[in-house]
Design brief:
The protein is α+β, with helices and mostly antiparallel strands and 143 residues long. It has 3 helices and 7 strands. It has one domain: START domain (Alpha-D-Glucose-1,6-Bisphosphate, Chain A, domain 4, 2-Layer Sandwich), CATH 3.30.530.20. A hairpin with a 5-residue loop joins strand 3 and strand 4. The N and C termini lie far apart (41 Å).
């Protein structure tokens, strides 16, 4: 099985980045690849052995799917490892570069249905949406 890597640098403190990446209320605000999509529901039992289920849907309700799996390893502000329900493994690393700059690196096992460049583009789009959400987040209360 081959791996694909996507990475991005986010200009905010690590604690905020970690919170936005792991809290279900935040996830619902950023877990989609384009503005034509949204995440109407995110269930996140964020502990080793805990499950997650993020619903991604087109806003026109034409198509949607669940992104589901189990957390295998969690080291706060450092690493999250999980496996998807199809067995593919994913690891996410948070590398502090400065006090207000973090490189987020995702390595994931490629699936067989889509070309690698399409998978990389999709995962990067979600990561870029996350970056935009975090960098524009001003400690507001999420409803």
């Amino acid at each position: 099985m081959s791996y694909i890597t996507v990475e991005i640098t986010i200009l905010k403190p690590l604690d905020l980045i970690w919170e936005c990446f792991t809290d279900r209320d935040h996830i619902e605000e950023w877990y989609f690849a384009s503005q034509d999509w949204h995440c109407p529901n995110a269930e996140n039992n964020f502990e080793v052995g805990g499950t997650f289920n993020y619903r991604m849907e087109a806003k026109d309700e034409d198509f949607g799917f669940n992104f589901t799996g189990v957390f295998d390893e969690i080291t706060t502000n450092d690493v999250i490892k999980y496996h998807l329900d199809d067995g593919r493994k994913v690891d996410v690393k948070f590398k502090n570069e400065t006090e207000n700059s973090v490189k987020l690196i995702q390595n994931f096992e490629a699936e067989k249905e889509n070309p690698h460049n399409l998978q990389k583009k999709g995962w990067f789009a979600i990561l870029n949406n996350f970056k935009n959400y975090v960098e524009n987040y001003e400690e507001q209360i999420i409803e």
